[in-house]
Design goal:
Elements lengths: L2 H12 L11 H16 L3 H12 L6 H6 L4 H13 L3 E6 L2 E6 L1 H12 L2
Antiparallel strand pairs: 1-2
Length: 117
């Protein structure tokens, strides 16, 4: 296939199906910022693994979480902190440990925002 043909195919492939609006509503911008914030929080494979583990358990997970991730406890704790700050998980103090679970509402919101891409 010649270069000119490849350019034509590329152009047709990438044409938008509808004109893109130059102005976006404030709610779209807010949704984009929210999605970016949540995407950043899950932007590491360990954080994805933590969310999957927590989603599998309907209750809260404590010590077992650290056993299932082969990293130093301090490293896992840092990833938990990022997820918690983003509102994707919550921690409940049950001295001497903290039990974690997903915040279903925020996880569902993340799914909704991703589905609009």
């Amino acid at each position: 296939m010649g270069t000119e043909m490849a350019d034509i195919i590329q152009e047709k492939c990438c044409e938008p199906t509808a004109p893109l609006s130059e102005e976006r509503s404030l709610s779209d911008e807010e949704a984009d910022e929210e999605l970016a914030r949540l995407a950043k929080a899950i932007g590491h494979p360990v954080r994805i693994r933590i969310l999957r583990l927590l989603a599998q358990d309907p209750g809260c997970m404590c010590g077992m979480l650290f056993q299932q991730i082969p990293l130093a406890q301090s490293t896992v704790s840092q990833h938990l902190k990022v997820l918690k700050e983003a509102g994707l998980i919550e921690g409940e103090v049950d001295l001497p440990r903290i039990c974690y679970c997903t915040k279903t509402k925020t996880v569902l919101r993340l799914k909704q925002l991703v589905s609009t891409l």
